[in-house]
Write the structure tokens for this entry.
Amino acid sequence: MEGKGSRVVGRLLTTVLFLCGAACLLPSLLMLGGVFWDSGHPSFVHVVDAFSTTPRVAALIGNTLAVAAGTVCVSLLIGIPTGFLFFRTDLPLRGAAIIGCLVAACIPLHVTVTCWMALAGMQFWLGSAWGAAWIGGIAYAPLTTLITGICFAASDPDLEDAAGLDAGRRGVFRHVTLPAGSWGIAVAALAVVVLSMWDITITDVLTVRTFGEEVFTQFQLGAGPWNAAAMALPVIAVGALAGYAAWRHVRRHGEATLAGTIRKAATVRLGFLRYPLCALAVIGFLGLYVVPFAALLKALGSAAGLASAWRATHEEIVLTLWVTPLAATICAFLSVLWAWVIVRGGFARVPAVAGMLLLFATPGPLVGIGLITLLNRPGLAGVIYDSEATLVAAYVIRALPFGILAMIPAIKR
């Protein structure tokens, strides 16, 4: 009876995943299908219209690559060493540092960009792709720290002990700890690349034209959803390739892990570097986050200015505070199911991987346009469109592929 009950539960969860997965993929499939369809037959007219201006397309490619590459470099340069220090060493105040990273990772992008504009002045940043990359890298660095740090902490202690017999501390880090954390570095880099290519917050404020910005602008100017989707094709191709490369790397993680290991990895002793590194971390946090935020508070002028800003935005803030936890809960549930199918799903593995790559590849603005195209019509669809359910769905679709990749190594164990 117990085996039969388990099969029933498994089939029920598989059905739920299939229905929810199809709903998540529908906006992407609709937008990609519409790009190559016109007046009832296959056509490339939307692609030709979108890329008819070569100089503009070249500028979009250059800006998008500059923003994405710069953002990844800044976030990884900060996130990898801090992730190791905060999660694997005896650095003082590391618990407070982890909490600080959690808080910093939740700061909206528009707040981060406003802080840096208040610090250095608006004219300093306007039109600068590298300025957008710097601000984006600072904004995503806490997320990179958390992802890489968790992966470093999950290193197998038995393998480290065995390697330590012959290789020493440096050899253990090089041959065991770093490879174990490499999947986290890959996931963090992929997340930052995709998010920075999709982002329209920082680039819009700084007037830097990228493909994500252009997709949104084309739709806003009435070019139609299909021309906007056609403009996103280069980003979709890069996202799909990056997602596939990360999947190829992540699926190998954990194959050498000893089953049943429950011990935590040993804490790395910093010795005489303990307090100097702590001081350096504190100075970095103050310089990169506290000082810009203080400049923003100074720009507000007084408590009255802060109160006025709260009155103007409190409804949106309250909405965010309950919508995002709900979306995160749904995303976590679907991520576990989806990752389980990818790892242990047999014949269902191929479509599950394909669906994950499609979610990776679809830019955030295109997901929003797809949801608008699907739901902005009379009837039940219109009722859903006018509710917060559309916002929850957009958040889930955007975050789901990252959750899936994060769950795969844990399920393989």
